[in-house]
């Protein structure tokens, strides 16, 4: 049975679906005003791995990842660039999709956008007002009464008084309590607005996910996930809204992925250590970034540096090197095998991808040693469960030839000619020259192949 670490209960629990016929997962997605950064990649890959593994184990999954296409940052950025909000969000949704495709992220079963769910948000806010959990303030905004929801703080494991003492909360004369959060923002000059019973305006950020998850997965679903930075206040506020409105649990399991640090420091634009996915992919293949992320447990923090991602790249190359020599007969994945037992044991334990990857390395070693076709199949098929090892091995190992200023094939031909003439000094010279350029040669079965080593 799959065990999941539940952020709500702070312990591992056996996964028991609400409905065995279909499990429902909601992961908080992007706010589309800029390029996705490496922290977004962490969350995308983590929940894609979870989604893939459930499907591999035979579950029917409905996976929903939302898009926030209206908020303060979007409005500000559109105004700075002198374009419409729709033009800005369309641009960065397209860029996000390109990043996801590069990282081999499966498309979600539904990808709701906030602006398509305004009526549902208005309805939920109205219900919260009727239940006394929200109020229409004198400035035109609608706020949630945090102290009226007795379980506020249960996800972040803090009491309301602890939150009040520990947070730097801006004084707002219109709030009944400084912890109250906005559900509806009154219309301001030059900003988009929708009509509502509480006046023209637009939704607050937290209400979006409460409504989109309910409309696509129901009021009570299996798993809600996102980055650890969303646990408070975003997910805490979602629980207050959804459970306050529907009088039932929002999600049974809450899952949060860890942060990515840069050279052991928190990633921050102010520190100059902020990287978009695209900037990383200018230096490393996308699958190396995915492999790097999967090489650390999804709940643990990752330290990104040139050394750590290079190590990941070398590890991935070792696996592809094994696949570069396929057997004469490709076998189907067996129903039972000791390797499958080990792999599933690792992944069933809260999706332990680093342990699963270590098992893949053992499989690669076994295939290199025995050349038994079953190990090739296990390596390829279990790699697919993690979303890796599906490229042509030779193409992956050789990389992009566009950045090479030499004709490798001609140099290999010259070396082969030198070897045929038993000119070993010239043969060695060519090999050494290629090695100095980051090209490794391998002579096998009368043929010479090459791969990049740097």
Structure description:
- With 454 residues, the protein is an alpha/beta fold.
- The protein has three domains: 3-257, HUPs (Rossmann fold, 3-Layer(aba) Sandwich), CATH 3.40.50.620; 262-396, Four Helix Bundle (Hemerythrin (Met), subunit A) (Up-down Bundle), CATH 1.20.120.640; 400-452, no CATH class.
- The chain is 44% helix and 16% strand.
- It has 16 helices and 15 strands.
- The strands form five sheets. A four-stranded parallel sheet has the order 4-3-9-10, with helices on both faces.
- It is elongated, with a radius of gyration of 26 Å.
Summarize the structure.
This protein has helices spanning 38-56, 72-81, 85-102, 118-130, 160-166, 205-217, 231-246, 277-281, 286-294, 306-323, 338-348, 353-370, 373-385, 393-398, 408-420, 424-436; strands spanning 3-6, 11-14, 23-31, 61-68, 134-136, 142-144, 181-186, 201-203, 221-227, 251-257, 260-262, 265-266, 302-304, 439-444, 447-452. It is of the alpha/beta class. It has three domains: 3-257, HUPs (Rossmann fold, 3-Layer(aba) Sandwich), CATH 3.40.50.620; 262-396, Up-down Bundle (Four Helix Bundle (Hemerythrin (Met), subunit A)), CATH 1.20.120.640; 400-452, no CATH class.
């Amino acid at each position: 049975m799959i065990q999941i670490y539940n952020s709500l209960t702070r312990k591992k629990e056996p996964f028991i679906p609400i409905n065995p016929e279909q499990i429902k997962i909601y992961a908080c997605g992007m706010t589309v005003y800029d390029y996705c950064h490496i922290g977004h990649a962490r969350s995308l890959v983590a929940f894609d791995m979870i989604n893939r593994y459930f499907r591999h184990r035979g579950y029917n999954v409905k996976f929903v990842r939302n898009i926030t296409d209206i908020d303060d940052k979007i409005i500000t950025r559109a105004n700075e660039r002198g374009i419409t909000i729709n033009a800005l969000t369309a641009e960065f949704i397209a860029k996000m999709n390109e990043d996801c495709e590069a990282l081999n992220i499966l498309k979600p079963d539904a990808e709701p956008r906030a602006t398509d769910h305004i009526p549902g948000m208005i309805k939920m806010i109205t219900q919260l007002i009727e239940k006394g959990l929200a109020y229409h303030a004198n400035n035109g905004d609608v706020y949630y009464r945090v102290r009226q929801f007795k379980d506020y703080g249960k996800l972040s494991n803090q009491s309301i008084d602890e939150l009040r003492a520990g947070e730097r909360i801006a004084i707002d004369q219109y709030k009944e309590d400084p912890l109250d959060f906005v559900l509806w923002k009154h219309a301001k000059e030059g900003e988009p607005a929708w009509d509502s019973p509480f006046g023209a305006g637009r939704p607050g950020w937290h209400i979006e996910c409460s409504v989109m998850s309910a409309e696509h997965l129901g009021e009570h679903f299996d798993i809600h996930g996102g980055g650890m930075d969303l646990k408070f206040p975003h997910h805490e506020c979602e629980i207050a809204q959804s459970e306050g409105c529907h009088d039932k649990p929002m999600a049974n399991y809450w899952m949060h992925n860890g942060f990515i640090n840069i050279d052991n420091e928190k990633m921050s634009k102010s520190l100059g250590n902020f990287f978009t996915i695209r900037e990383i992919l200018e230096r490393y293949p996308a699958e190396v970034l995915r492999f790097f992320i999967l090489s650390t447990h999804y709940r643990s923090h990752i330290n990104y540096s040139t050394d750590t991602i290079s190590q990941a790249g070398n590890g991935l190359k070792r696996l592809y090197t094994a696949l570069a020599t396929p057997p004469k007969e490709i076998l189907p994945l067996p129903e039972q095998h000791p390797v499958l037992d080990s792999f599933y044991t690792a992944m069933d334990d809260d999706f332990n991808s680093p342990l699963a990857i270590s098992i893949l390395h053992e499989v690669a070693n076994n295939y290199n040693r025995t050349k038994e076709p079953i190990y090739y199949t296990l390596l390829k098929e279990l790699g697919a469960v993690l979303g890796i090892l599906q490229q042509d091995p030779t193409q992956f190992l050789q990389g992009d030839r566009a950045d090479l200023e030499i004709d490798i094939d001609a140099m290999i031909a010259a070396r082969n000619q030198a070897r045929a003439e038993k000119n070993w000094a010239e043969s060695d010279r060519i090999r050494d020259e290629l090695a100095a350029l980051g090209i490794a040669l391998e002579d096998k079965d009368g043929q010479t192949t090459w791969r990049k080593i740097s």
